[in-house]
């Protein structure tokens, strides 16, 4: 499956927010408390995130459908999301290839990101790309007793 990786457009708001909702519901939903899930829904986190950073997103499109996104700032990848229906089809790799190339082209020596200990699929994905754990700390965002991992990978410039 070949994905077109392209910058976001204002018209992508609904599709990008749907990707964020899908990945949150399938990955994080089972891990956080019902109270944290209620807060997520009440504050419409995907819309807030789109409103704040959507213009910087890069999207993966397959057959005209937005199926994934990546967002980074400097050397830090804020988000990598792929619709659950398109998981393990190379979409995440295409998005990370693009982000890592752009970060390297900006002259930065490494790329950093966070994931959580429970997310074994993302941990395996990043390990396969050469990321290593450099720190771990409580995940305060969801108040659910989760542990966040800070991962880093040197870039060849």
Please provide a written account of the structure.
There is one protein chain. By secondary structure, the protein is an alpha+beta fold. The model has no long low-confidence stretch (mean pLDDT 93). A 7-stranded mixed β-sheet has the order 1-2-3-4-5-7-6, sandwiched between helices. It starts with a strand and ends with a strand. A hairpin with a 2-residue loop joins β3 and β4. It contains 5 helices and 7 strands, in the order βαααβββαβαββ. The protein has a single domain, classed as Gcn5-related N-acetyltransferase (GNAT) (Aminopeptidase, 3-Layer(aba) Sandwich), CATH 3.40.630.30. Helices cover 37% and strands 30% of the residues.
Q: What is the alpha-carbon Rg in Å?
A: 15 Å
In terms of DSSP E residues, the strand content is: 25-35%
CATH architecture: 3-Layer(aba) Sandwich
Q: Could you tell me the number of beta strands?
A: 7
Amino-to-carboxy terminus distance: 28 Å
Structural class: alpha+beta
Indicate the low-confidence ranges by residue numbers. Answer: none
Q: Average pLDDT across residues?
A: 93
Order of strands in the sheet with most strands: 1-2-3-4-5-7-6
- Could you say which overall geometry the principal axes of the C-alpha atoms support? globular
Number of helices: 5
Q: Report helical residue fraction.
A: 25-40%
Summed up, the domain count is 1
Based on the model shown, name its key terms.
Aminopeptidase; 157 residues; alpha+beta; 30% strand; single chain; seven-stranded mixed beta sheet; 5 helices; globular
């Amino acid at each position: 499956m070949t994905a077109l990786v392209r910058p976001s457009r204002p018209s992508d708001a609904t599709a990008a927010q749907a990707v964020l909702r899908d990945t949150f519901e399938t990955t994080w939903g089972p891990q956080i408390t019902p109270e944290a899930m209620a807060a997520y829904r009440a504050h419409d986190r995907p819309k807030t995130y789109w409103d704040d950073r959507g213009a910087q997103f890069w999207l993966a499109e397959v057959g005209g459908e937005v199926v994934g996104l990546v967002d980074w700032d400097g050397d830090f990848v804020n988000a990598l999301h792929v619709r659950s229906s398109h998981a393990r089809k190379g979409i995440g790799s295409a998005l990370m290839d693009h982000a890592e190339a752009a970060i390297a082209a900006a002259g930065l020596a490494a790329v950093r990101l966070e994931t959580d200990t429970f997310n074994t699929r993302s941990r395996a994905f990043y390990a396969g790309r050469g990321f290593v754990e450099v720190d771990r700390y409580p995940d305060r965002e969801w108040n659910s007793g989760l542990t966040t991992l800070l991962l880093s990978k040197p870039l060849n410039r």
